[in-house]
């Protein structure tokens, strides 16, 4: 490859890691972005792994660096470490893809998100978070599941969805219809030593909507429904697309948003969760919805990079 060709390739620094509870997820997501750019976009972009350890020490190529050194090492940054790092990138005048701090706060705080979306007439299923069992504060271990099940039962009725509060592939997702089933589901969570999310089960049609700004001539482009369960009419699809656009704008999402919805039998839309980083694994739901509109996932990723 000639020097002239080399000069055209932009270096994309993927910031991942950092301190905090999302350290492992950040490493995984950052790794997926690195792999995707390397495999699909290496003719235009060169991924550069910027690892930030739990002691806040930055590394590039395995070598510790000062954040200021990035000016000479990358042209664009994709920050999946922590929103607060955006200010450092701004101070260095490095274009970047980052989740805005407010959007990130909403994504990671169900209570704040639930309160904020009321302003656009959107609801979430009722829920309660059960903190991980602590011997010094909770009742004897053998009584924990029953005690917490009673707390849930007093807040809202069955059926309930019971799952790990943070992603944990080792813990099953339970649908509990009776009090004994609720107790057993909470017991499973307690055994895994995880905080537990118990959520009101809303019966209805479920779908994900991916939205991206400034794509194909639209301020907010909505992809066709993905990861859907149930048959949606044309009118229902239009409703979800409209709600997804409003949500994207309302929470201040910048580069990408995935919104998971359930539409009940009365036509009411409930938000289940949001995600601000696309799933770039091969054959992901995001990949499938890109294909459904005649695009390859890496074309959409390229668009996101160009919008930095």
From TrEMBL:
GO terms for molecular function: ATP binding; D-alanine-D-alanine ligase activity. Residues 147-205, 237-306 form the D-alanine--D-alanine ligase C-terminal domain. It comes from the Bacteria. InterPro entries: ATP_grasp_subdomain_1, Dala_Dala_lig_C. It holds the Pfam family Dala_Dala_lig_C. PANTHER family: D-ALANINE--D-ALANINE LIGASE, D-ALANINE--D-ALANINE LIGASE B. This is D-alanine--D-alanine ligase C-terminal domain-containing protein. The lineage of its organism: Bacteria, Candidatus Nomuraibacteriota.
